[in-house]
């Protein structure tokens, strides 16, 4: 039986929704990759447990990317099973995102502690391994900082213990051996952990806004899918 308004409108809305949802999936993948690159590049966090967060974001983005196509096919074919599966997976994704947000809030202090531990380990390995040396130098240059908590950390960690010496990457105007017998006016004295954490916090608003937008479209998708399921099950022919 043909329906003049209701289910026909829902079917078109499903098309529009899935296109927007597909874009949301791409956005999540991009955010996850950006966060992971920032962590790897600036925080020496490659082996830290907190690096799991961007991986989860990327995984959810990939699932959303493909499930939007699945939902579109379900709407076109008016297949009750496909639309139901789409709705169930969407609900599961929504719950995973809520759990991830709660975990991120609860574990934020542990994440900061992990940053500190990894950075200090990098300082201890400075000049021992190229990876640690390059990563520490990049972080100190990019964030204009020196040491984990402040420049004095270099007196207790790394190759400069008990010396008036910091890496050249601590210098405001970096030149060869500028960190040897330095004066405070010529180097960055603030710690890198605080600078990195502040950078992450400054991006939280953007990430939260994107997440809320995606959650809104997920809820719409669930509502549309449920309406279409009801229509299909009732035996309507969606034109």
Automatic annotation (TrEMBL):
This is Tetraspanin. The keyword Cell inner membrane does not apply. The chain crosses the membrane at residues 12-35, 55-76, 83-107, 204-229. PROSITE patterns: TM4_1. Disulfide bonds join 145-178. Keywords: Cell membrane, Disulfide bond, Endosome, Glycoprotein, Lipoprotein, Lysosome, Membrane, Palmitate, Protein transport, Secreted, Transmembrane, Transmembrane helix, Transport. Pfam families: Tetraspanin (PF00335). Interacts with TIMP1 and ITGB1 and recruits TIMP1 to ITGB1. Interacts with CD9. Identified in a complex with CD9 and ITGB3. Interacts with PMEL. Interacts with KDR/VEGFR2; identified in a complex with ITGB1 and KDR/VEGFR2 and is required to recruit KDR to ITGB1 complexes. Interacts with SYT7. GO terms for biological process: cell differentiation; protein transport; regulation of vascular endothelial growth factor signaling pathway. The keyword Cytoplasm does not apply. Functions as a cell surface receptor for TIMP1 and plays a role in the activation of cellular signaling cascades. Plays a role in the activation of ITGB1 and integrin signaling, leading to the activation of AKT, FAK/PTK2 and MAP kinases. Promotes cell survival, reorganization of the actin cytoskeleton, cell adhesion, spreading and migration, via its role in the activation of AKT and FAK/PTK2. Plays a role in VEGFA signaling via its role in regulating the internalization of KDR/VEGFR2. InterPro entries: Tetraspanin/Peripherin (IPR018499), Tetraspanin_animals (IPR000301), Tetraspanin_CS (IPR018503), Tetraspanin_EC2_sf (IPR008952). Its main location: membrane. GO terms for cellular component: cell surface; extracellular region; late endosome membrane; lysosomal membrane; melanosome; multivesicular body; plasma membrane. It is a multi-pass membrane protein. The lineage of its organism: Eukaryota, Metazoa, Chordata, Craniata, Vertebrata. Belongs to the tetraspanin (TM4SF) family. It is found in: Cell membrane; Cell surface; Endosome, Multivesicular body; Late endosome membrane.
